[in-house]
Specification:
245 residues; alpha/beta; Rossmann fold; 2 domains; 7-stranded mixed sheet; two-stranded antiparallel ribbon; 10 helices; 11 strands; 15% strand; Haloacid dehalogenase-like hydrolase domain-containing protein; HAD-SF_hydro_IA; phosphatase activity; HAD_sf; HAD-like_sf
């Protein structure tokens, strides 16, 4: 079910706010959307990596418990290990790579992703990708499912999400403004934060409703939209945006 995030506001955005009391003439003026940037793991592909098991393997049990208690909304493992000595970092990256390889062996495209891409193509809407996974995973995704995202920025691009730099880089490459772009992903702390910091529209994919939990109610960056499936995105776009190339 499509969930506008407020009964009072159709949606809110750093530059554009539409309220229920807006005049009919103003309400009919929809913002232009020229591009969509997607997360990959858990958004374009079915989630298969056990991230909690990966974090435990990287950190060890005691450190995992300590870090988790300080970050109840989620561990940012890549940022956490950046301060480690090179040898320890190397071992950590190898553990992460092993988990990601297991994920590649079971790679599946998310239901609704192909259809949504076809719809965007029919409207000449650009589509890009930002992932904290490696380039090999992006290349395999493109090859296996026959869909292309450009630019497609992987973990090798620094700084990575939730820094807005990769999204701003894509906007610059496309020569369009961030407020003409939507970021779609399944993570509040990475995807939504990246989009909000860049000044883009944001859509949170929450298949299981886990972000309905109380601990997420007061996080700094809330999405403009929330969906439980990519199948819902087309109707959202057609309803609330002027789609232009």
């Amino acid at each position: 079910m499509l969930l506008p995030l407020s009964r009072t506001f159709l949606f809110s955005h750093p530059r554009t706010i539409f309220s229920s009391t807006t005049t009919m003439a103003a309400a009919s003026s929809k913002p232009h959307l020229k591009g969509i940037v997607f997360d990959m793991d858990g958004t374009l592909t079915v989630p298969v990596i056990d991230f909690q098991a990966m974090y435990r393997a990287v950190l060890g049990h005691d450190e995992y418990v300590a870090v988790k208690s300080k970050n109840p909304s989620g561990i940012d493992i890549l940022h956490h290990i950046e301060s480690w000595i090179p040898d320890k970092q190397k071992k950590a990256y190898q553990v992460i790579a092993d988990f990601e390889k297991q994920g590649l062996d079971h790679l599946q495209i998310m239901p609704g992703a192909s259809e949504l891409c076809s719809f965007l193509d029919s409207r000449n809407i650009r589509r890009g990708l930002i992932t904290r996974n490696v380039k090999d995973a992006v290349d395999l995704f493109h090859q296996r499912f026959g869909v292309k995202f450009s630019p497609a920025l992987s973990r090798e691009y620094r700084p990575y999400k939730p820094d807005p730099a990769p999204l701003l880089h894509i906007c610059s490459t496309w020569e369009i403004q961030p407020n003409e772009v939507m970021m779609i992903g399944d993570s509040l702390k990475d995807d939504v934060a990246c989009g909000k910091r860049a000044g883009a529209f944001t859509c949170l994919l929450d298949e299981t409703g886990r972000y309905d939990a109380p601990e997420y109610a007061n996080v700094e960056h809330q999405p403009d939209y929330k969906v439980s499936s990519l199948v819902e995105v087309q109707s959202l776009l057609e309803r609330d945006f002027e789609l232009t190339s």
